[in-house]
């Protein structure tokens, strides 16, 4: 579930983000920065979008190649969610469906790029047919780096 974030710009120029407003010795107040995905949600969206594990040695190549065939969603500025104007919640971006990215190419062209990456990094393959990360609990296999979104808790035993 996306979390509320506060941004603090210190008088020394440093920036920090936190899940709650905090006091700083510099006296500058924190600024509410809205709702944002947590790191596991970002990993799940990466895997759902690209069909690759969200971590691993393939990331440099994958990020380079996919950056050429995707664009940041202009509606949500790549966040995947929009902050409610009343500051009471968030909405999933209807343009990108929550992914924060839009494809500039066909599905066949996307698969060709994925195949090129997997030719060099076959262990990077991951299921892109996972459930919507907003609808379940996200777990990560630390061995493969792939994530799963658990939505049916009856299957856990």
| Rough outline | globular
Helix percentage range:
10-25%
What class, by secondary structure content?
alpha+beta
Q: Please indicate the percent range of residues in DSSP E strands (runs of 2 or more).
A: 15-25%
Number of E strands: 9
Strand order in the largest sheet: 2-1-3
Distance between the termini: 24 Å
Specify the number of helices.
Answer: 3
Give the low-pLDDT segments.
none
Q: Return the domain count.
A: 2
Write a structural description.
It is a single chain. By secondary structure, the chain is α+β, with helices and mostly antiparallel strands. It has two domains: 1-36, no CATH class; 38-69 and 105-156, no CATH class. The chain has three helices and nine strands. The strands form four sheets. The protein has a three-stranded antiparallel sheet, with no helix packed on it. Strands 4-7 form a two-stranded antiparallel sheet. Helix 2 (59-67) runs antiparallel to helix 3 (107-120). It is globular.
């Amino acid at each position: 579930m996306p979390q509320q974030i506060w941004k603090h710009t210190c008088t020394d120029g440093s920036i920090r983000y936190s899940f709650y407003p905090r006091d700083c010795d510099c006296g500058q107040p924190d600024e509410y920065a809205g709702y944002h995905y947590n790191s596991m949600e970002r990993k799940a969206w990466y895997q759902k979008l690209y069909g690759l594990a969200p971590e691993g040695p393939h990331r440099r190549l994958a990020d380079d190649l996919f950056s050429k065939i995707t664009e940041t969603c202009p509606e949500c500025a790549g966040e995947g969610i929009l902050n409610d104007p009343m500051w009471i919640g968030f909405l999933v971006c209807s343009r990108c469906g929550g992914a924060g990215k839009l494809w500039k190419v066909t599905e066949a062209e996307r698969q060709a790029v994925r195949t090129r990456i997997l030719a060099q990094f076959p262990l990077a393959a991951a299921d892109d047919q996972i459930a919507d990360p907003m609808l379940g609990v996200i777990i990560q296999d630390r061995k493969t780096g792939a994530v799963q979104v658990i939505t049916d808790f009856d299957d856990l035993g």
